[in-house]
Amino acid sequence: MAHSEDQMALVEAWCSHRPGLVRFLARRLRCEATAKDIAQEIWLRLQRVNRPALHQNPRALLFQIAANLATDHYRVQQRRLELDAEIGELLSDERDEASPEHLLMAAQELAQLEQAVDRLPERSREVFRMNRFEGHSQKEIAERLGISVTAVEKHLRKAFARLASLRTQLE
């Protein structure tokens, strides 16, 4: 089959199965925005697929790629949650005593953390404040700011990494 015919078959397979792929991923991941992001990743992977495999059963191939990417996303999310918990523990290191010295140290530490938050890039700072100070979920933040949940997660990771780095420097 000629190259242009291969491209046509690729585009046709993608267009006809994309809505089903997004529904499949949204059910699996419980997030339509993430499902759409991963559907785009499927398109990119499809560009590298062995053409005979595409012609044998395009639907099966597309859904197999979708299932693999959803599993990869889930694993990454689990690791992110673990890292967030670890960072949260680092940031909330509770003191045994509330002596005047500890209160002074805590006040100084809080001031330094506030300064660190203020030095974050604008979007990361905004996402961090909405999540940690205002209590908005990642999905709510994504919708309010018109960005993907993945972008919200990226900004939170960036903020947590900088704050954890500061925390390490303070100890």
Low-confidence stretches: none
State the share of residues found in helices, binned by percent: over 70%
Class of secondary structure makeup? mainly alpha
Shape: elongated
Strand content: under 5%
Taking all Cα atoms into account, the compactness measure Rg is 22 Å
Q: If you average the pLDDT, what whole number results? A: 81
How many DSSP-defined strands?
A: 0
User: Whole-Å distance between the termini?
Assistant: 65 Å
Count of helix runs: 8
- Main sheet record: none
What this model shows, in words?
With 171 residues, the protein is an all-alpha fold. Helix content is 84%, strand content 0%. The chain has eight helices and no strands. Helix 1 packs across helix 4 and helix 4 runs parallel beside helix 8. It is elongated and about 75 Å long. The chain starts with a helix and ends with a helix. The mean pLDDT is 81.
Q: What are its keywords?
A:
171 residues, mainly alpha, 8 helices, 84% helix, elongated
Compact summary:
By secondary structure, the chain is mostly helical.
Secondary-structure topology with pairs:
Elements: H1 3-29, H2 32-46, H3 51-56, H4 58-91, H5 100-118, H6 122-133, H7 138-145, H8 149-170
Helix pairs in contact: 1-2, 1-4, 2-4, 4-8, 5-8, 6-8, 7-8
